[in-house]
Design goal:
The chain is mainly beta and about 130 residues long. About 15% of the residues lie in helices and about 40% in strands.
Length: about 130
């Protein structure tokens, strides 16, 4: 959604350049652009804030807390520090606070990245297993 809005803004400036005679401008011609004030580009993310993981570091299990603006399904991916895929899952979020607990007894101690994916939006949280 953010990309579409940026494309619309760029298209607007191209329209101004083309239809204000820029193609016939000389080296001494100045071009002024209108000042667009108070433009707010809303990305409207699903999550209200950064996801929280505790305890972090964890021994065998951790809890993921997400504050959602709406009901939605999210995909979860866990990768190690070199990018190797460790685990994938899905959760159905409800508007408001969501809490999920995961157990990972079978992975090595180290640094991992938990990515929450909803459409084009991704949020990644670094977690440590000790």
């Amino acid at each position: 959604m953010l990309v579409k809005k940026i494309i619309h803004i760029i298209s607007f400036f191209i329209f101004l350049i083309v239809f204000t005679g820029f193609s016939t401008a000389s080296a001494n011609t100045s071009i002024s652009f209108p000042v667009l004030e108070n433009i707010i580009i809303e990305d409207n993310p699903l999550l209200k804030s950064k996801p929280k993981v505790y305890p972090n570091p964890f021994v065998s299990e951790f809890t993921l807390v997400m504050e959602a603006n709406d009901n939605a399904k999210v995909k979860l991916q866990l990768h190690n520090v070199i990018g190797k895929h460790i685990w994938s899952g899905e959760e159905m979020l409800q508007a408001g606070s969501n809490r999920f607990t995961y157990t990972f007894d079978n992975i090595e101690n180290g640094i991992y990245y938990l990515t929450i994916i909803h459409g084009d939006n991704k949020k990644t949280q670094k977690i440590v297993k000790k």
